[in-house]
Amino acid sequence: MDGRVDMELAYNRQAPSRSEINCKLCISITASVVISTFTCTLVVFHILGKQPTVSPAKEATGYQKLQGGLTQKTKPHAHLGADPTGKKNGFLSWRNRSKDDLNMEYNHSEQSLVIPENGFYVIYLQISYRGIKKSCEKNVLLMHDVIKRSPRYNNEPRTVISSLETVPRNVCGEEWRKTTHSTARIFLYKEDSLKVNLISNHSLVDMYGTYGTKTFWGVYLDRDLN
Question: Nearest Cα to 205, choosing from 114, 147, 140?
Answer without folding.
Answer: 140
